[in-house]
Amino acid sequence: MRSPIDSSDSHLAGRERWSAGVRAGQTNGSSRELSSRDVRRHSGGLSVPSSSPRRTRTASPARNQSSTIRRSSGSALQRHQETPEYIVALTENRAREVGVAALNISTGEITLSSFSDTANYVYTNSTLHVFLPIEILFPKSQENSPLHRKLCDSFDDSRLKLLKKFVFDETKGFYIFNHSAQATQLTDLDSKYLSFASLNALCSYYESTNGVILSLANLKITFHRLEHVMVLEPATMRHLELFINSRTNAQNGSFFSVFECLTQGGRRTLRSNLMQPPTKLSRIEERLDAVDALVEDALLYESLRAVLPKFKFCDSVTAKFIHLPQERDIKSIKFYHFNVLAIKNILGNLPNLLALLRDRKPALFARAAKAAADHRLGLLKTKLNTIFNFSEDYERLDDKQRLHYLV
Description:
Number of strands: 8
Strand content: 5-15%
Helix content: 40-55%
Strand order of the largest sheet: 5-4-1-2-3-7
Distance between the termini: 47 Å
């Protein structure tokens, strides 16, 4: 069995090994790439069942005091917020640089973040409160470190899992990112090697504990940057009553409860922007332009309120396809039929949304219209109609009846 990487390695040595590995992979091309089987089934020693979907325990229950999450005043902020839906992996080096990878289990989207933190870990604490994690994955070699103690003090409602250090492999994490659906050309790779290490640990843990294999081609991986946001501490959020009414100790009556969100994505965006408000002038002006357009055009406002609920569960439906099917039985066929029909309904409502957003001046509306007009969505709709041969009878059914049309 491989021994964990020594936690005393300097951050400079880690960067040099990471940079050399990336340059070697880019120079030699596909001959130096890791195989899909290597990355998916043997990432850090966490084996993924190939035939049986049974759940595999990869980390022992936290029974001792060192791995038990202690209660703290900061936990009150979590108890009154949204339902936790993130699994977060993070690690740090000796220069107090932190790499974070967060998987939204409802949407299948993975968010990476890498930054230099302070002695009080203000940026780490704020970022984790934005994600509101169900579980936090952390290297066992860094147990009892200042960051580990900070996690224990701040997240008593989360389950802290200590994994072996070699699970946090930056080379395999870069392979996952580079083969994902949203792979982009990055120029500052050296500053992101910790987030790639957390990415590998996150994917390995999720696959092992859920008995699934992630489809790299369907993964959406984005970077969350802290350069142009204002980072708020949990104590500041409580004092401003952003999410909790200080009198009733409940969400009702807080600033967050004033807003009505029609989609899951909108609710998450609002929550993250209240916790980390943008400071970049161009981004703020874009949003103000969109607000002005909605205030000045009451018809557009009411039309969007009528159309957007049709896309309420769009991201959670598409997230079902990030897993590769393990077995093709009747249950799995029904599962995919339900989600295919839901996607069919979403695609059918896209023309209505596109008609409302087309030729609008605000940049936010223009980008949304461009995404809705993507020719690949039309090809997908045509393909679904061809494969499933939707009849005229299907078009007359309501949403609940449509879900049972093909089963």
